[in-house]
Amino acid sequence: MVIGQRYSAILDAACDVFARRGYHVATIREIASAARLSLAGLYHYVGGKDELLFLVLDRALDTMLRGLDQALARARTPETRLLALIGTHLEFGFTHAAALRVINRDWDLLAEPRRAEIAAKRRAYIERALRVLAELDPHGRSGDELYSATNLLLVMLNGIAAGPFVRSPEDARTLAGQVGGLFLYGFLERLTDPSGAAAAIGGTYDA
């Protein structure tokens, strides 16, 4: 195994241990064992648990931002940009469930200055989502209202991604349309064809 693959495997192992055990309970020895390394071998690559948490979060957030940027670039309307946001978030939750759990639960346990670096990337992701909603908003909502709506949407998506709803990338695409329709039109505005919600709000999400 080359160094790059070994390094990636260490981060995968650390992410899984952090997700299962939580940062405070997880030990560096557990992570070394999960990575199939001795304790000394693990310290050859990283300086400790705080550094591992930072690296896990940094890699995961870079993946989220890159995936969202690519999906938004392919979308052609405000409605399909909303679908892109929802679909990529759910698909990330399916393919990187452990990482999403660590992002949402453990990021603020980092010490400074690493905490500030991760906070900046989380903020960059939220700002992209906020711009998607601002582009859709027909009512001229205040910045605080848009920020609240953005956070409510992301919290909802985190809950869906953590539940038994997404079992494949195709599930993420289907749910993107359903969640997008519900978010845009509300529960009381029933669509003629609920299964075609993606088409009803401007087109399907192209993964």
Poorly predicted regions are 193-207
Cα Rg: 19 Å
**General form:** elongated
Termini, distance in Å?
31 Å
Mean residue pLDDT: 87
Percent of sequence in beta strands:
under 5%
Largest sheet: none
Tally of individual helices: 10
DSSP strand count: 0
How much helicity do the residues have?
over 70%
> Helix/strand/pairing class, anyone?
mainly alpha
Describe the structure.
It is elongated, with a radius of gyration of 19 Å. With 207 residues, the protein is mostly helical. The chain has ten helices and no strands.
List keywords for this structure.
207 residues, 10 helices, disordered C terminus
Short description:
This protein is an all-alpha fold.
Q: What's the arrangement of secondary structure elements?
A:
Elements lengths: L2 H19 L6 H7 L4 H7 L3 H26 L3 H18 L1 H10 L7 H23 L6 H20 L6 H17 L11 H4 L7
Helix pairs in contact: 1-2, 1-4, 1-6, 4-5, 4-6, 4-7, 5-6, 5-7, 5-8, 5-9, 7-8
